[in-house]
Amino acid sequence: MGVWITAAVVMCCAAVRAQQPPRSQPTFKSAVEVVSVDVTVIDASGKPVHDLGATDFALTVDGQSRTIASAKFI
Questions:
Q1: Average pLDDT, rounded, for the chain
Q2: What is the spatial distance between Cα 36 and Cα 71, in angstroms, rounded to a whole number?
Q3: Which single residue of 21, 31, 45, 62 has CA 20 to 30 Å from 8?
């Protein structure tokens, strides 16, 4: 008899749990600020340097380092 009562309690708990709405995912606010910067880079003879990428530059705004998403030669 005790086994049947235990089984009934487990089934009731499972039914109640199945009826509960899923928990919502935590949310957070985020922002991205895109800044376009034009630079001119020349070599010692005054010719433009063509093969620079994002890792060749550093950018700081108000003393804080910023990530450079891309750099391209135009």
A1: 78
A2: 10
A3: 21
pLDDT tens-place string over residues 24-56: 888 888 888 888 888 899 999 999 998 899 999
Closest by alpha carbon to 34, among 55, 53, 61, 7? Answer: 61
Contact 24, 33 (CB under 8 A): no
- Name 53's Cβ contacts closer than 8 Å, sequence gap at least 6: 71
Hunting for tokens 């891309």 — which residue is that? 70
Q: 3-state DSSP: the chain helix, strand, coil percent, rounded to 5?
A: 30, 10, 60
SS3 of residue 57 by DSSP: coil
CA distances from 55 to 9, 32, 51, 72, 73 (A): 62, 19, 11, 11, 14
